[in-house]
Fold:
Amino acid sequence: MNIAILGFGTIGSGVYEIIQHAATDEVKNLHVTHILIRKGKDKTLPIMCDDIQTIFDDPQVDLIVETIGGIEPAHTHIMNAIQAKKHVVTANKAVVAKYLKDFNAAAVNNDVHFYYEASTGGGIPWIQGLEKALRIDAVDCIHGIFNGTSNYILDHMYRYQATFDDVLKDAQHLGYAEADPSADIDGFDISNKIRISASIAYNHPITDQFPIFGIRNILKEDVQFFSSKGFVVKLIAKTKRKGNTYDCIVEPMLFGKNQIEANIQENYNLISLHGDTIGELKFYGQGAGKLATANAVIQDIIDISENKSHRQCSFNNTMQYDSTLCNHDYILRCNPSLQSLFKELEYEPIAHSYFHIKHVEATKMHAILKEILECDPTAFMASIYEEEQSC
Amino acid sequence: MNIAILGFGTIGSGVYEIIQHAATDEVKNLHVTHILIRKGKDKTLPIMCDDIQTIFDDPQVDLIVETIGGIEPAHTHIMNAIQAKKHVVTANKAVVAKYLKDFNAAAVNNDVHFYYEASTGGGIPWIQGLEKALRIDAVDCIHGIFNGTSNYILDHMYRYQATFDDVLKDAQHLGYAEADPSADIDGFDISNKIRISASIAYNHPITDQFPIFGIRNILKEDVQFFSSKGFVVKLIAKTKRKGNTYDCIVEPMLFGKNQIEANIQENYNLISLHGDTIGELKFYGQGAGKLATANAVIQDIIDISENKSHRQCSFNNTMQYDSTLCNHDYILRCNPSLQSLFKELEYEPIAHSYFHIKHVEATKMHAILKEILECDPTAFMASIYEEEQSC
Structure:
């Protein structure tokens, strides 16, 4: 099977490296014939080129790996590749979250495959694990630590009593966090991942219209306060289904110290699903990183080269967003003078500037937090995970 | 696809139930046409029969699910089924551990499939997860909590300060443990599971010639002593590879309280692998139980019905058993008068009748324990898990 790689950054070069070095029969069948690099960049390998049309026009190219990232030109390249009757494998969560249904329909129409295991959970065989579960079960809940950067930050703040800024610098130094870390710490990265997961689980394309709150405001003191109450905080994306309705949420969540989620260290990910007959399944591994993510890309390539189709989704199911499905208790930190903003809720003060809010719809709590943040931009909140409420 | 189920106990009836009730297209394609029950038993369903030859002779039967358990007649039935050109799916770890290579060769010769996802890790997609990892990586280490009964016992002893006997009775009452619990608590069940896993990982059939020590002797006081040192004890099966040599071991192992293994509760399983490029992957779920195990059986059936072959193993690799690969520190409890039996080892007493043995080959430590048990049949030991040493 002949492969063209678009982009030669971390993941693209990882894919190339594994294909050059892995010793298994499956990988030995794979050949990288083209690597697309940006115009003007040095062609350090003879197979590098800067004209994508050459790749689309080459009848020898069977499959295109998209590792450029972002929405454009990735979206256009993927569509053009599919229309040129090339299989496409991508690690790009943003473009998959937005265009999954379109890509899928185009692939079906052009009789090629479009796979994206690496887009969600990095090296973790999550997408296929979910697809397999759906062959038998309805999946009614998914939640997880889907982002390595934020987990690294929260884990180091917890275990080493460090400040957010110090750990973020450390993570940037180690290459775990970008120079602009917004996507990771504000929850947009994991919102894409839960959209992709929920779209598959519900066979319905999930939009980005759900509440998202990240960890930018977390203080060392918050982590210590939660710990004193027996909790560890993690940034979680979650979706829940009831019949033909679903809910999605991204927010910091508190886990008891002996729950598995509380013990996920460094930049590892953990993703859970709940199905009718399988019960609870959890998948743990490297959610990012060069070789682990490249491994997931190559798993998709091998499936295509061995003609092992993934589960077919039409994304034509009718599902309604219902903001009332996710209900939690919250611990909120804000200036005590702002209590009037949540006086309609059942709550009690549990320490200076910390409030325990009882059983409230996530959407409602996020709306109130938005008002609070306008007056106290340092405010922070985390929901309390309860096994009975969640999956 | 027409299916005959051999045996109608927990798993067999679970397979039947899911096929009758699941609403997915994949399962709707499956039809149970025969259920083999023991001669003399009531035929409560019209598709029940007690003559296996009818099943082998029926050209309509495509696939046979073996859920009888044990070595014979399961072994003969599976071989006869394969020779009758029927695909076979089994949940039977004992027969798979012993005859994996033979079954596999017979299936290849008869152009049918022989799959056994449910034999190891119950509902956890472990076998296929391992097979997928091997498409790209060499896997150099596998370890896990492979047995729900022993985990239930150890977890309840730890969290509720209970005695072994009380928890065992409780587990038997809940149906988590057999009336004769030896296979679970003495480590034989998980020795079959690590043999199956290692056979796949190394493409070499693994015999049962490696040290096995279970949890029959564990006292409430041991659990409390380990806890006071920061540890939680779990029954672990582990295999390690170095080039063309491998080691296997089954023994109680001590994990730091914030390691994931330490926080696996109730009767859940957790299985880990380490590969070159994927790094560490862990799979968590129900390692036993009617519907979860039946789910794994049906996953295999769907793969066969959709012609999605699993990774082909010849089991023809040449691997040598090397008892020196697994080295651990141990905590040993025995009558202090028996110190002469391990005086050659580096050790220190750490409490009355507890000794910390430093860095010793697992095989050697198990041999010494055997001598100790002859004089003090209540003795117990557990190794200390170290991430650097293990996977």
